[in-house]
């Protein structure tokens, strides 16, 4: 697809913002998109999406959070919103679909943000970066930018649960293949775990640690069985949980402590020849990824 | 014309008389202009009541009869017959409903009587403008087309042929037999499917009244009930049917191997093939897409070896036009594609099978000669059969496919029989064992040691050695469990054929919400359709087992016979009529007709009504820009309708003469 | 349970707090029932009626809500610290190795941003 000149608004969410724990996901995504010629503009003064926690407090409140962000994107005249964090993706989609069709809540939202009642609001679209890369940018554009060979590195994707559920409009809800596509386009060798969309537990890591660690143990084991040499993630919370679990589970799992867990956009950036500082990859992680990548000749 | 109208008011016991003052009504009717006699009676529809009317028609020389009683759908035809028997044209009659529309909707005697008076006055006024009409008679061609040569089509064909009708049986595959030919055993009797099917197939072939058109498809249909013209395309086998003796030598020599669709891709056949050993007609067919001559321009070995020189690569498709009186569709079903339910791993994991695949595996003429051997060459010791795959699921098919519980049990029995040491589990939600002997079969299978667990399987994952882990909740125990299985069988749903919709369009019948052919009434008319000349039978109308399919086949045959044996079909005459002198040929009426009954007559450049097809809906009449003088409906002319209205309105509003401009 | 009237028993369970709203149930359910949404509704109902079964989730939720109403955005490290202080301060010690790792990676930050017009999101 010809995406030259395409512009989107960007909603980082608390985790992927400059000060969030998933900031490297944010940085690497922006840098990759820049390399692909896409302009993104961060929504001004965005607020937290509320994710699933705030929703328990109250439906109306959580919709107000999302609505404010949608209104701001419309005001910028960039109704296509790029999102990285799956929880934000879910929350904003929920506000967009349910709010703008459910009459009771819709009326209250529009009272506060009248722009959401205008005809322009029908142009609002929530785009996950994976969806955008696979369906808008496409194979050729990505392949053309690859400068470093990944030497057949066995890369497994861990999607987590909220990218394709319940809003599965760009891929299968249980067995998506978008990341595997991207991995093969950048020259990696994709391997699959049947648990690639199994929930990592999310916030429950803080409240029910033991139960969550039992599940993540199974997830890690399935990746080891699949022969993964590197796991790419697309969610800051999954990323964090995997790292916490790796330490806490210790010897219970046979995960090679050199197994790298990085965000998929960091890997894509690496294959584009972008430096590890810009991508937020630590020297440690870079070394463990395999000397093959860093030192291999650029194409 | 001088009208002599007789008005008959029915008490209907107390049904009408308790709310309507029938005496008052009769006096009122007698006083209406044109009415020579008005009577009331306890039960007008009874024999004495009917006799009253007949006597009056003769004595008074009545020109019209009005009966005020129940709904026309109840006794309209009764009184029409009375008129006819007394020598009066039945369309000079009008029925007034003073029961459902008057006495059954109010308790107020005054209001009821008042309304009844108005309704009778309206009918009397209307009837002055009635003209005698004649029913339309269309002769019926005494032959039947049956589309689909499975067990249902076969049954229907035999019944019709044995009653002397000419039958054309069109079948898409190279042989008749359908799905039943793919089965090994049938539940609950465990009859060998082929053993009970093949004699019928042979009967069909040898019956002089049946013409089998195998390897053929329906291209186009035109005409109407009793007179259908069907274009059938006979696909080229590239084998001369008159010369082929079915010896099979060609197939032994053919070098091209193709995945055998009869065995659901579990084995190979040759490019020149017969679908199964008992095929009828037993003629070989060359699969053009895989034949080396057609694809690579080499080979032709079959031609060299054929002892009767039956191979003919020049054969062309043949178009045959059939003229038939009625059509019966018996096209059967397709199997749900389980690969869309990704968490069951069908298509990804080697040892996950569908029910039909296992059916072929258990068959002695199947890919493994009846032995239970998996794709990895091993014999399974633990088998899990999962029910409701694609059925009873809002995400795929909402309906229950009716036969899967039973065939799942049958497969369990067959596997247990061949592998006595195996452990077989059935994961179900509900067991549907509705037919005769079905519950007993369920018990028998349990006694044979098959374990039934209530809980739908959640997912299947594969371990390194190819073993399948099935996760489910045993809902009766309230525990989440896992079974390590060697083989998983999915009891997949039945769905309509992929091209069912297209076929329905060709024959002008609707499909239901799930894509099956729509019956006229789900309870009382399961094999008829809204198209009076087309019937449906078997699984193409909805998932069902063999006994029900056979019963429906016989029912459809009876319907067809009932239609054909009359020799003519009668159509109601209250249809549209074109005044050709006034028609400007604008064709608006043609574009609005839902029954394609109106056509453009190129010679006179006017619209023409095909009387048999017209259902009298009135749409064209309303649409005609030239007005009712040009296009009108018999029995519903402007004069008649306005006369009714005039009688109901208070006199000060309108008179008939002022409004009507008809000549 | 709820359909048959065992509402209190349902709200007292641990189950509703273990749901992470991954929506696997909703995607698979043949009756297209959104069980995850139902669990969220039960969580809400439980809190309204004072049931928490000594689960930690309600406290996490309250902390989260407080931050949103105060700042409009979340700082995860701050959230985790405040939550741990509220529930079991001992856990903070466990978090030290993790904090070191995050610091090394450059993803640890305690600064708190506040959005303008915070009243817009307060109910």
Structure description:
The complex is a heterotrimer of chains A (299), B (663) and C (123). Chain A contains 15 helices and eight strands. By secondary structure, chain A is an alpha/beta fold. Chain A has two domains: 7-129, Up-down Bundle (Glutathione S-transferase Yfyf (Class Pi), Chain A, domain 2), CATH 1.20.1050.140; 146-295, Rossmann fold (3-Layer(aba) Sandwich), CATH 3.40.50. Chain A has a four-stranded parallel beta sheet, with helices on both faces. Chain A has a four-stranded parallel beta sheet with strand order 6-5-7-8, sandwiched between helices. In chain A, helix 11 (236-249) links the parallel strand 7 (230-233) and strand 8 (260-263). In chain A, helix 7 (129-145) runs parallel beside helix 8. The longest helix of chain A has 18 residues, at 209-226. Chain A is globular and about 55 Å long. Chain B has five domains: 5-127, Rossmann fold, CATH 3.40.50; 143-235 and 318-332 and 497-565, FAD/NAD(P)-binding domain (3-Layer(bba) Sandwich); 249-305, no CATH class; 335-495, FAD/NAD(P)-binding domain; 576-659, 2-Layer Sandwich (Alpha-Beta Plaits). In chain B, helix 1 packs parallel to helix 5, helix 5 (109-127) runs antiparallel to helix 18 (638-648) and helix 12 packs parallel to helix 13 (438-447). With 123 residues, chain C is mainly alpha-helical. Chain C is 57% helix and 0% strand. Chain C has helices spanning 7-11, 15-18, 24-28, 35-48, 57-71, 76-87, 90-94, 96-105. The longest helix of chain C is centred in the middle third of the chain and has 15 residues, at 57-71. Chains A and C meet through helix 3, helix 4, helix 9 and helix 11 of A and helix 3, helix 4, helix 5, helix 6 and helix 8 of C.
């Amino acid at each position: 697809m010809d995406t030259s000149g395409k512009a989107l608004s960007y909603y980082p969410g608390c985790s992927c913002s400059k000060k969030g724990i998933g900031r490297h996901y944010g940085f690497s995504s922006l840098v990759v998109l820049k390399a692909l010629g896409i302009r993104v503009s961060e929504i001004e003064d965005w607020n937290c999406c509320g994710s699933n926690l705030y929703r328990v407090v109250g439906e109306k409140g959580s919709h107000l959070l999302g609505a404010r962000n949608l209104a701001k994107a419309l005001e910028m005249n960039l109704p296509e919103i790029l999102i990285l964090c799956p929880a934000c993706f879910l929350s904003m989609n929920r506000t967009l679909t349910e709010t703008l069709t459910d009459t009771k809540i819709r009326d209250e939202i529009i009272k506060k943000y009248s722009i959401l009642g205008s005809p322009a609001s029908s142009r609002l679209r929530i785009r996950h970066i994976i969806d955008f890369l696979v369906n808008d940018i496409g194979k050729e554009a990505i392949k053309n930018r690859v400068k470093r060979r990944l030497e057949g590195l066995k890369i497994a994707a861990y999607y987590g649960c909220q990218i394709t559920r319940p809003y599965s409009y760009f891929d299968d809800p249980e067995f998506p293949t978008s990341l595997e596509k991207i991995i093969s386009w950048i020259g990696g060798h994709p391997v699959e775990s049947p648990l690639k969309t199994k929930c990592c537990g999310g916030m429950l890591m803080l409240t029910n640690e033991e139960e969550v660690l039992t599940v993540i143990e199974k997830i890690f084991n399935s990746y080891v069985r699949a022969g993964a040499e590197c796991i790419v993630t697309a969610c800051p919370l999954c990323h964090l949980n995997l790292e916490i679990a790796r330490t806490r589970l210790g010897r219970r799992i046979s995960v090679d402590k050199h197994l790298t867990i990085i965000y998929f956009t960091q890997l894509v950036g690496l294959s584009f020849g972008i430096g590890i500082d810009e991508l937020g990859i630590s020297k440690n992680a870079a070394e463990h990824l395999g000397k093959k990548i860093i030192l291999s000749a650029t194409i | 014309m001088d009208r002599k109208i007789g008005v008959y008011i029915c008490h209907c016991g107390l049904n009408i008389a308790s709310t309507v003052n029938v005496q008052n009504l009769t006096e009122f009717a007698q006083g209406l202009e044109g009415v020579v006699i008005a009577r009331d009676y306890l039960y007008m529809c009874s024999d004495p009541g009917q006799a009253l009317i007949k006597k009056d028609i003769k004595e008074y020389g009545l020109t019209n009869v009005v009966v005020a009683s129940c709904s026309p759908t109840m006794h309209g035809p009764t009184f029409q017959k009375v008129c006819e028997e007394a020598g009066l044209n039945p369309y000079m009659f009008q029925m007034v409903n003073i029961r459902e529309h008057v006495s059954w909707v109010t308790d107020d005697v005054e209001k009821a009587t008042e309304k009844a008076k108005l309704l009778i006055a309206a009918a009397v006024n209307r009837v002055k403008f009635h003209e005698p009409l004649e029913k339309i008679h269309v002769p019926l061609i005494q032959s039947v087309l049956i589309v689909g040569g499975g067990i249902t089509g076969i049954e229907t064909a035999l019944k019709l042929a044995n009653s002397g009708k000419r039958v054309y049986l069109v079948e898409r595959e190279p042989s008749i037999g359908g799905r039943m030919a793919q089965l090994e055993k049938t539940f609950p009797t465990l009859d060998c499917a082929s053993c009970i099917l093949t004699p019928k197939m042979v009967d069909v072939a040898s019956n002089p009244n049946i013409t089998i058109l195998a390897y053929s498809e329906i291209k186009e249909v035109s005409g109407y009930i009793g007179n259908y013209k069907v274009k059938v395309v006979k696909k080229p086998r590239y084998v001369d049917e008159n010369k082929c003796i079915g010896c099979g030598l060609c197939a032994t020599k053919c070098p091209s191997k193709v995945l055998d669709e009869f065995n659901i891709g579990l084995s190979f056949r040759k490019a020149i093939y017969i679908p199964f050993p008992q095929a009828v007609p037993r003629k070989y067919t060359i699969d053009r897409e895989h034949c080396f001559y057609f694809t690579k321009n080499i080979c032709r070995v079959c031609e060299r070896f054929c002892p009767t020189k039956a191979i003919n690569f020049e054969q062309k498709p043949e178009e045959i036009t059939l003229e038939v009186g009625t059509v019966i569709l018996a096209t059967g079903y397709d199997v749900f594609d389980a690969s869309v339910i990704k968490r069951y791993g069908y298509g990804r994991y080697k040892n996950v099978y569908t029910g039909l695949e296992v059916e072929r595996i258990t068959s002695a003429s199947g890919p493994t000669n009846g032995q239970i051997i998996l794709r990895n060459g091993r014999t399974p010791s633990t088998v899990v059969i999962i029910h409701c795959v694609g059925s009873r699921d809002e995400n795929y098919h909402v309906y229950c496919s009716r036969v899967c519980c039973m065939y799942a049990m049958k497969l369990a029995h067959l596997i247990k029989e061949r592998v006595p040491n195996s452990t077989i589990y059935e994961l179900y939600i509900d067991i549907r064992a509705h037919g005769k002997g079905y519950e007993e079969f369920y018990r028998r299978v349990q006694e044979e040691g098959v374990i039934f667990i209530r809980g739908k399987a959640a997912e299947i994952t594969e371990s390194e050695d190819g073993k399948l882990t099935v996760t489910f909740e045993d809902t009766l125990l309230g525990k989440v469990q896992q079974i390590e299985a060697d083989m998983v069988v999915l009891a997949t749903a039945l769905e309509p054929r992929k091209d069912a919709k297209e076929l329905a369009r060709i024959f002008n019948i609707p499909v239901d919400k799930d894509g099956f052919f729509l019956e006229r009434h789900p309870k009382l008319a399961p094999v008829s359709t809204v198209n009076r000349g087309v019937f449906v039978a078997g699984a193409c109308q909805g998932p069902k087992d063999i006994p029900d399919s056979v019963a429906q086949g016989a029912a459809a045959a009876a319907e067809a016979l009932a239609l054909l044996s009359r020799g003519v079909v009668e159509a109601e005459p209250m249809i549209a009529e074109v005044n050709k002198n006034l028609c400007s040929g604008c064709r608006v009426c043609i574009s609005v007709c839902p029954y394609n009954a109106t056509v453009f007559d190129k010679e006179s450049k006017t619209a023409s009504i095909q009387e048999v097809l017209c259902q009298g809906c009135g749409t064209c009449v309303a649409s005609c820009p030239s007005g009712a003088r040009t296009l009108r409906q018999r029995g519903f002319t402007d004069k008649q309708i306005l006369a009714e209205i005039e009688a109901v309105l208070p006199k000060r509003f309108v008179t008939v003469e002022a409004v009507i401009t008809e000549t | 349970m709820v359909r048959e009237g065992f509402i209190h028993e349902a709200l007292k369970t641990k189950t509703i707090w273990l749901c992470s709203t991954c929506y696997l149930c909703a995607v698979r359910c043949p009756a297209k029932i959104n069980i995850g949404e139902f669990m969220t509704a039960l969580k809400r109902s439980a809190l309204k009626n004072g049931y928490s079964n000594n689960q930690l989730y309600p406290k996490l939720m309250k902390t989260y809500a407080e931050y949103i109403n105060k700042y409009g955005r979340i700082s995860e490290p701050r959230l985790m610290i405040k939550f741990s202080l509220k529930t079991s301060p001992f856990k903070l010690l466990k978090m030290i190795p993790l904090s070191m790792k995050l610091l090394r990676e450059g993803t640890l930050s305690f600064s708190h941003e506040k959005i303008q017009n915070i009243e817009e999101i307060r109910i």
